[in-house]
Structures are given as structure tokens and as C-alpha cells.
Amino acid sequence: MTPMLDPFMVRLVLVFGLLLTGLPVGAHWVQPGEPVSLKDNEGLLALVIDSDAVVSSVRLDKIGNLIASPKLEQLSQGRYLRLLKLDAAEYRVNELVAMNFGRSSIIYEIGDIPSARFKVEAGKINYAGDLVSRGISMRSFRMANRNLSAYVTVQQEYPGLIERFPWRHAMAEPDPYFDFWQTEQAAQKEPSQPVSALPALTPRSDSVAFAKQMFRYYPDRMGYLSPDGLALVERVDNEIEPRLRVYWLSGDHVDRIELPPGKLLNLVWIANRRFVAHLSPERGGIRAYTVDIGGPPPYSLQLIMPTTAMLISVDPDGSGLGYFAALKRKELKVYRVDTRLPPESWVKKAKAEVLKQIRDEVYWWADEHGRPRLAWQIDDEGSSYQLVDEDGKGRAFSVKTRTNESITFVGFTRDGRLLAITNIDRPQQELVEFDQRTLTLGRTVFAKPGQDVLQAGSVDSTLVDFAVYRQGGHLRQHYLNATDAGALQRIQAEQRNKSVLVGPATGNANRLVYVEAGDSPPTMMVYDAAKQKLVAPQYELKTPDYGALSGTERFVLKRSNGQSIEGFLTRSSSRLPSPLVVMPHGGPIGAYDADTFDQEVQYLARMGFAVLRVNYRGSGNATEQALAEGVGQFGTGIEDDINDAVDYALTLGGVDARRVVALGTSYGGYSAVMLTLRWPERYLASVAIAAPFDLCLMMSDADFVGSQATIEVLRHWIGGDRGDAANCRDISPVYRYRELKNPMLVVHDYGDERVTYQHVQRMIRMTKMIGRPVPVLTLKSNEHGVVKYDDQVQVWPKIVTFLNQVLADKERVSSAPVALKR
Prior knowledge:
Layout: H1 7-22, E1 25-26, E2 42-51, E3 54-62, E4 70-72, E5 78-87, E6 89-99, E7 105-109, E8 117-120, E9 125-133, E10 142-144, H2 147-157, H3 161-164, E11 167-169, H4 177-187, H5 205-215, E12 222-225, E13 231-236, E14 243-248, E15 253-258, E16 263-271, E17 274-280, E18 287-292, E19 301-303, E20 309-314, E21 321-328, E22 331-338, E23 353-354, E24 361-366, E25 372-379, E26 382-388, E27 394-397, E28 407-412, E29 418-422, E30 430-435, E31 440-446, E32 453-457, E33 466-471, E34 474-479, H6 482-494, E35 499-502, E36 511-517, E37 520-528, E38 533-535, E39 552-558, E40 564-570, E41 578-582, H7 599-606, E42 610-615, H8 624-628, H9 637-649, E43 655-665, H10 667-678, E44 683-689, H11 708-718, E45 744-749, H12 758-769, E46 776-779, H13 789-807, H14 810-814
Parallel strand pairs: 1-4, 2-9, 9-11, 41-42, 41-43, 43-44, 44-45, 45-46
Antiparallel strand pairs: 2-5, 3-4, 3-6, 6-7, 6-8, 9-10, 12-13, 13-14, 14-15, 16-17, 17-18, 18-19, 20-21, 21-22, 22-23, 24-25, 25-26, 26-27, 28-29, 29-30, 30-31, 32-33, 33-34, 35-36, 36-37, 37-38, 39-40, 40-42
Helix pairs in contact: 5-7, 5-13
GO molecular function: serine-type endopeptidase activity
Keywords: Hydrolase
Protein name: Peptidase S9 prolyl oligopeptidase catalytic domain-containing protein
């Protein structure tokens, strides 16, 4: 007798079976040397994993048919390419499983962003991108376009495969380079001359010696004056001397505090002789250490907790109570602690955990009473804020911005107002009060017509005491209270033609003061209230003696539409008339130059070059209208402004109009190349540091491509049809490589994630094809630009050598005209 089946059970079994078959299935990798055959509806997927973390699996979602989504396994750490067969369809890279330093698995969803989508076409090798991760943050995973590198890898590991199956860029963001390169290669005849030899860049010993002197100390110094005004702790934040220095004003001597590896973020005083130092180790996070300088040296750091932790604030009433945040069980928790206790017992003896409902904080602002009041939170959906009321309850809010609008909260004032810097519905960046009751923007607290408010805060506090703006090339301060404003006026009167920042008064009325100018490195001083004068700490490791530094002349040109072009000309005293280095700043939109100390400028001046820096259209510290002038002007209007500034600078004297070169970093390097491309008779050579040679590539290969909003901002900056990757070829040097006639030196870090090394590889491939390869100095410090001391000492003397070699070509120099017509 045959048993009867329950129809419901039959349906249940069928559904359960479908669910089982619909689970992600392990995909079969095509191994090197393995015979490859494809069905009519199959294509090959080329996917590169490039991760610092150990990736164990990646799931690909098949759009419209999730039950057929393959799961890619047998992965690992490092960079490697995988090929697999897939049905012709649209997919997206979705779920990723990685190991957190071998301790635990973390599941991360990349999300449905355009850069994670790709389309597989039958009969082709479809490149879906590089899945890239740098650092330990799981939020750092993104899909990047490293098309050319992947192509070369397939050629090497799968010989002959590309000849059978055409290579195809399958990412959602188009990339015109690959088709352009293949077309140019097919049309290219053998070079009429053999490939030219690259120049030997052997620098003179004096250029190396001065580079070691100039770049040894990074001039961005930070000081913290004790509450009683008698001890100054200076942060020395560079790789040569990672330490703190304690200068005692009463005894005029210095003590040193050695620091563990990592970047020092800030200090928080908890008593007259005790503070907390926050450091960021190489693996990320924040470590908090207490330091007691009340006894005899040597002083040591005591770790508070072996996890991410930070002292948010200390009550100003002298009670020693404060708020301390610590990461416990993957959640950041805030505690009320007694900082007078031994640090290892802060959390153990905390009365209670506070602010439990706030999660995923990335920054806290405390009010005038030391209470954490505003939390900035970030998650997969973006950023938002929580304003915490006195009863401990938080109110969530966000601030909507349009294109080119921004808002940055800067903190609370000493009378309890919450302030932000914003240009929302305003002609420039202004300091504005945020209404804590309605959670809306209120009145303007401070504005400077035609100038941006650049920052606001305090020299040695988390509260907001002043606003900073720029005027006449120097930084200027506006204090929110009359007492501090009067002290500021007196000190500024002593330091004319310099940038001066003055801190609030300590217990004995002393103040911390920063002074800087183009020919004066940043100097930390103390205003001694008893003596009513500035005192420079006289300790052994003070600012290095650079010798005679070159001054800077500022000028302003008016364009026909009323907007200004600002220039800064730094002359050399060692060679007159001097060859001119035109040095555009990066950015370009919103960045700017000022009459502040610049190691690179002073190095070039000592080596015999005049240096011109230009705030062209779109530069920052201006009105929103002036910023908008730079949109859509990459390689065109911006470079027109720079060239106009050169015309004027040549009339000021001391500069040889027949010997002009261009040099810059990031957009500045791109601009330097475009100047030689547009006016080759004037600009005899270019030095391109971390330069984007292919603006189209920036839409799909940069550290911000995981954010579609940022890509749209860049697209807007490039402007109009040029914002589309397929239509930006006319302003990208790599597509105009045949027009590059003058010598060019490329300096690029192989690990640069902002402007990746793909830009260099593309330029090298094109220039080699016509027998004119560019010399390249490749760094391996994972930086955007020449940042590390060892790199600076190696690179800048070679840059000077390269420029001198170009200028030594007398026949070339003598044929260059002095004046040009457009």
C-alpha cells in the first residue's frame, strides 16, 4: 500500500528545498593553466582582493535573482586576482566576511552603492574592480578601479587568455582609458628614435644637507599651558622625535617625556601637574594615558585601559570629576569618573554608566560645566547628531545641506551657546549660533565680509573662545569676550605682519601665544602677565636655526568680473635674477595659500629659486561666489589665473622671465603639467607630485569612491559634461600625452589612496609608447604627497637637481621668449 502524502507537507518540502538551493554557493575559481571554455551565456569575472585584513569570503548578489548569488571563498590577506565563470547578468559585491586580526569574524555589508555594481557580458573577461581595504576599519572597504594593473596580472598569470576573450571594464563608472590605450597602441608605429634614457638625478651635497636641516622638524607644533600657567607641555609630533617636552617657566628648564608609537592627538589637564594624553596607535583607535609631572623626572605614561578610551572633559570647579568614554564589548560607553583616583580604577569605581542610549559616537563636545552635550554619530546611513539635555536624554537631529553647503559644529561657549561654522544661506563661512531648543540655525555670531571663518575654538580648551579668519595673507583672531580681545590687540601690536593666535588667560593670567609668518617658523611663546611681555621658552630643542629665510611679497590682481587673484612671491637671495618656480596649491576648490611658513618654499628659495604661489579662482577663504568661479575650470580658467599672476610677478623684479618652471602636489601637480602643456614656451619643465593625470579615473579610483555624494561633488567641480568620466579626456594629461613636449618629473607614492599609482602607470605606458618615458621617483610610505622625513630628504634635492639640469640647457633657455601672447 502506497502512503498518501499531505499536500501541505509536499509544498513545505519544495519550498524548503528551494531555500536550500538558494543559499549562496561556493564559486569555482579558474586556476592559472586550467583549460577555459565558456557556454553561450557565460562570461569570466576578474575580481581583485587587496586587503590588509584577512578576507574569508565575499558574496556577489545577482540582481533580480538572489537565490543564484555566488559566494566567493578560499580568500586570504594581501593582493591577488581571481577569475571565475558567471552567467551574463548584473551583479553587485555585497556581504564580506573578514577577520579582525585573527580574533573574530566581522560581517560587513558594502551596501547598494554604484561602485559595487558590475555587469558580466558573455564571452568576455569582465573586470569588476579591486575590493580594497586599508587599515583596520571595516568601513574602509570599497571597490576601486585598478583596471590596468588587473589587466597586466591576467596577462602574466593566464597567458593567452586575453587573446581568446576580450578584456572589458565592467564597473558602473565608465573608464575611457582602456579603449583609448588600445586604439592608440594599434595606430602607433615603432618610435622613430629609441626610448630616451632617463636622467641621473644625483644631487649636490649642500642641497642634501639643507634638506636634512629644513625638513627635520615638522613646524606644526601644539602647546598646552597648565591651569596655573607655570608649566608648558609641547607636543613634538614628528617621526624624528616622538615625545613631549615640559618647559618650566619658573626655572627656565625643560624635561622630556618619551611617547609610545602612535600619533599624539591632544592633552587634557586634570590638575596643575597632571594631564591625560590621547594617542592613536598604528592599528587605530585611541589610547588614553595619565602623566604626573608633580615629582622629579623621568616622567612616565600610565595606560588607563587597554582599549579605545578618551577623557572627554573635566569639571571646571576643581572637584576632579569628569566624563570618560571607553569601548567595551564593541560599544562606546560614557562614565562619570573621579580623575583623582588611580587611573586603573576610574571605570571600576565609576558611580554609573551615563548616556546609555548614545551609540556609534565619533566625537563629543562638552559644555561650560564639563558635561558631554553634543555627540556626532556615524553609521552606514551617514552622520547625525544627538543633543543631550540636562536630564541625560538625547534628541537626534541632522542638518540638511545643498551642493557646496557645509556645517561644522565647533563646540560650546563659556556662556553655554552651541556654535557652528556654516555657509548655509550665507555668502561665506560664518560663525553661527545653533538654537538648542528648536535644533535650527540661529543668528550669526561673527562674520567677516568676503572672508571665510576658518576655525573656532580655544588654544588649550574644548570650549569656543575665538574665531579665526585670514586677512592680508595672515591669520587673524576675533575673541568673543572683551577682556581677551584687549589682550589680543596688545600682543598683535608687538608682532606686526605675522599670524598671531592668543590663548585665554590661565590662573596667573599668563597666556599661550603662537606666532608665524612666511619667513618665521611657528613659534610658541608665553605672555607673562607679571612682566607684561612675550617670553620665548629657551630650551635645548627649540625651533631649528634655518639661517636667513626669504621674505614673501603679497599682491592682488583684479579680474574683469571683480574677483581677485592673490599671489605670494618669495624671492631667493642666493641667485639673482632667480629662476621662477610656479607652485599651484592642491584642492583645488576651497584650498588656499597664505603668508605662512612653508618648508618646501623656503627650501627652494635657499636653493636659488624664486617661488610663486597663487590663489586662483575657486580658492578658499573667499565668498561662495568666488568659490563657484572655480567650478568647471580645471585645466582652463584656473590655469589662466595662474598664468596672469606669472605675468604680474615678472614685473616685480628679481625673477628671470626666461627661466620659469612649474611644480605642485595633488591638483597642484596636475596644474603644473597643464601649464607646460598649454604654454610650453614659458614653462620649461614640470614636477608633478601625487598628480591626477587622468581626471576620469578619479571618479572610480580614490579613497572617497565609497561615497557617492563625494563623487558627485567632484563631478560638479569638474563641471558640466566634463563631470562625466567619458567626457573629461580633453582636460586630462594622459589623453594628451603627445602634446607633452617639455621635461617632466613625476613623484608619487605607490600606496597613495587619494590619487593612486594607476595615474602614474597610465602615463608611463603612454609616454613609453612614443619613446619619451617620464622619470618617476616612487615612494613607499603610503602617503598622498611627500610627507615623511626620509622621503623629503631624498626627493627635494633630486627635484632641485632635475630643475637645474633643465635650466642648464642654454640653447633651450635662450630660445624661450620673455613675454607671451595668448
